[in-house]
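Example 3.2
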Amino acid sequence: MPTLAEELRDWSKGVGERIRGASLEPRLEPVGHVMHVGDGIASVSGLPEVRLDEMLLFEGGARAMAVDLGAETIGCILLGSEPVAAGSLVRGTGEVARVPVGEALLGRIVNGLGEPLDERGPIAARAALPLERPAPSIIDRALVTQPLATGVLLVDAMVPIGRGQRELIIGDRRTGKTSLALAAMINQRSSAVICVYAAIGQKASTIAHVIDSVRRFGAADRCLFVIGEADSLPGMQWLTPYCACTIAEYFMEQGRDVLLVLDDLTKHAAVYRQLSLLLRRPPGREAYPGDIFYIHSRLLERAAKLSPGRGGGSLTALPLAETQAGNISAYIPTNLISITDGQIYLDARLFDEDQKPAIDVGRSVSRVGGKAQAPALAALAESLRLQYAQFLELELFTRFGTMVDERTRAIIEHGRRIRAVLEQEPLAPLSLAEEIALLYAVSERLLDRLEIERIGELRRRLLPWLREHCPTALTLGERSEPLGGDLSEHLKAALAALVQSVGVPTP
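Structure, written as tokens:
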């Protein structure tokens, strides 16, 4: 064991070389002091050169981001678990907040700064991009014409989503908003679409369910999870959607298609309100800061379909928003409705009646519409909304015991089968060929004499039956023209035989 003298001799061998190589020129380095700290924010003085969104380093290794530049002090949000005390030193880094991007992120779980939360080691990122980036200009965008199939028949038929669109999913708590977005993510297992899921202020159990479902049923190697749990610092929750959007933009700019799920922006607005009030910004309506609309619009405008000159990639955003007792006229829901290209409204009453997905067709709309549908699906769904709305009105009318004639009774029975076809189990997305076949059976009224209870069995047997009796129907989603000709007759015969085999017609 070496003695103390031997250790000192070994340590001092290279001291002279290190001293001779050190720079002894004077250097001016601005140093600030923490004036106040608490609830995830800190006030700092003595750093007049700090820029907005610049990263700050505290004594002890804690990090923060400057979000409020005052004449005397700087308000910053804390981004780490390291303790920060009043009076400690703080230095600016000269760099704005950035997140790593690249293929190495796929399949990983990261926080709002792109740092790994799983146990798979560090991420070998290709580059680092700023959290805040300008949205693509109008000249860099193209028309939204390609469908983003969700596998949910009611959505794909009546509220179609296009690649590059911003479609809001809105409804009360526990009405299936996350399940609907999760089904869309799982359905991309049969496509090349990359999925990015941002959990903003969600419970750990909810996040674990989403990750486990994607790993079991979806393509987890093409998915990324950006997590800001409910018990994490408010600053990390606030950065979560920006981190997810920046990573998704990287793949979009590589010419690829990306689906971004923001779950949810109501909690993001609440976190931003909390931070703003702590930073003593003036409150506005419902105590939200006045720029909350600008915050969300700037974020969602980054979703786009790029022009061929920019690579032709797309970023489709599915932001989620929570309502209270179905009140869509509240401040945050109305903001998000006006920012997005349509909304899918989930009704608590329909959910309680076990109609799943509990989508209110009358309040749901897509401003892209049939332009983002497969031609065969668009042709079949053209009159579906009108027939379904007519049925709902007549059904409500007949609940009062009113006598109805045969024509009205036929419309109601047909509408009940439309509703049964549109009902769907969670996390069980349908292929485009299955959706077209089901709608074709409805449009040809092949199901009108089938017991409603047997429609679920028909749905389960549909895909194997088509593979055996009408394999050409499996290519319906790839066709660029509506269904017709010999294929239409062949499909009709196959579906009629399936209906006959599923159950005995009612008299």
